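User: Predict the structure for this protein chain, please.
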Amino acid sequence: MNSNITTLDKIRAGKNCSIVSTSLSSEIKARFAEMGMVDGTSIFVKKKAPLGDPIEIKLRDYTLCVRASEAGH
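Assistant: Here is the predicted structure, written as structure tokens:
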């Protein structure tokens, strides 16, 4: 396994990453795909709430907040 692969909830604010794969339920995966979060998408982690939830990310020229529990997949 590649040591550079991690989950979105573990990426520090101010860092870029790309989606390699997801392990979400089909309902959540479809919702994320509708928002443009598919394999190969570049993401910039803008900031995290003080307790780590939610996480504010930038992708495809817009900003989105995701739950840390979903970002962990």
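Residues 8 and 71 are 5 Å apart (CA to CA).
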